[in-house]
Design goal:
By secondary structure, the protein is an alpha/beta fold. It is about 45% helix and about 30% strand. A 5-stranded mixed β-sheet has the order 2-1-3-4-5. Strand 4 and strand 5 form a beta hairpin. About 10% of the residues have low confidence.
Length: about 160
């Protein structure tokens, strides 16, 4: 009985890692990104701090030799493939935590009707507890998140 439980838990772990690899394979063949930061759920992040976060993302991507193109604000449909950072601090008051979610949105085709659309093809997230200086904590977590993304991207695009 005990060995059966061990095998079941091992299979669940393997299934999770396969899912992550499957998502990572959706990064293969991407040559460039447009970049955006969504701070609509982080009202305390100022415009200046948002620029700092954008600089961190851009620097990490460029260090990873990932090409960035200028985001076209008035034509969102042209900004594909898009790498987007979503910052959510709405739970900070009750839990003391914030969420950073990095999404890649790209063109996909729906199997059932062969319709082309844009959808999230890859997602990587971090949840962290803010200390006294929340924005510094967010910046540190963003650096780690971007390092992880660049490593995954480079592995898929060797």
């Amino acid at each position: 009985m005990r060995s059966t439980l061990c095998i079941l838990s091992l299979l669940l772990c393997l299934q999770s890692s396969l899912f992550a690899e499957e998502n990572a394979s959706h990064l293969r063949g991407i040559n460039f990104f447009y970049m955006n930061i969504d701070s609509s759920f982080a009202t305390e992040v100022t415009a200046m701090e948002r620029l700092d976060l954008s600089d961190i993302m851009e620097l990490q991507l460029r260090r990873g030799d990932i090409e960035l193109r200028s985001f076209i604000a008035n034509k969102p449909e042209l900004n594909v493939p898009l790498i987007e950072l979503s910052i959510d601090t709405s739970n900070r008051v009750s839990t003391g935590q914030f969420d950073l979610v990095l999404r890649v949105r790209d063109h996909v085709t729906i199997d059932r009707n062969k319709e082309k659309t844009v959808a999230t093809t890859f997602e990587l997230g971090r949840t962290a507890r803010a200390n006294a200086n929340e924005i510094d904590t967010i910046k540190a977590e963003l650096r780690e998140l971007m390092s992880a993304f660049v490593m995954i991207f480079r592995q898929e695009n060797l």
